[in-house]
Amino acid sequence: MPATPVPASLRWYLIPVRVLLATLVVTLLSFAVSLFLGIVGVVLAAWVRGVHPNMTIAYRHVAFPIAAAVGAVVLVSASFMEGRHYQRAKTLRRMEDQMHGAH
């Protein structure tokens, strides 16, 4: 069985790019979903009360705070996960170099 390919060099400078890209994508998705649910909630509440819906509530009080909280959580968790992944790859690289040096 062939060994899994190992990158020629560990690129630590790509870690912030991956973290920010993941944070941006997840934050935008959470904003979209929470905005949709906020609009549905505002429309239903306005319909029950018999008034015109105020859509700014969906943006200001629902979608933006939820997206900001999700973005902060994703930023921290993605940073830790990428750091652990980099450290693990570095350790495995050292172990592999030691094994190849023994032959």
Task: Please supply descriptive tags for the structure shown above.
80% helix, mainly alpha, 103 residues, rod-shaped, 2 helices, single chain, 0% strand
Characterise this structure.
By secondary structure, the protein is mostly helical. It has one domain. It contains 2 helices and no strands. The protein has helices at 15-49, 56-102. The longest helix has 47 residues, at 56-102. It is rod-shaped, with a radius of gyration of 23 Å. The chain starts with 14 loop residues before the first helix and ends with a helix.
The number of distinct helices, counting runs of at least 4 residues, comes to 2
The counted number of beta strands is 0
Instruction: Catalogue the unreliable spans.
Output: none
Regarding quaternary structure, what we see is: single chain
Provide the β-strand percentage band.
Answer: under 5%
- Total count of domains: 1
What is the helix/strand order? HH
Strand count, sense and closure of the main sheet? none
Q: Ends: how far apart?
A: 19 Å
Radius of gyration: 23 Å
Fraction of residues in helix: over 70%
Overall pLDDT: 89
